[in-house]
Amino acid sequence: MSDSELENIYTEHLEEDIVLQLSKKNNISLEKAMQIYYQSKLANWIHSGEFGVQYLDSAVLVELLEKEN
Question: Structure pTM?
């Protein structure tokens, strides 16, 4: 498995964790949590590797996301 494939798998799991935590923490549906996440700057930063945020813990990223909205 290549480095880029591993990075993609890691990112997918990170995004799943963010959406799940956002949903539970705010008592919203997974669909709403997905909408909030995928329309955020954070999602763009994670996908582009900007600022290295993709290596932060998902709980920290959820806090950043909540501050953004």
Answer: 0.91
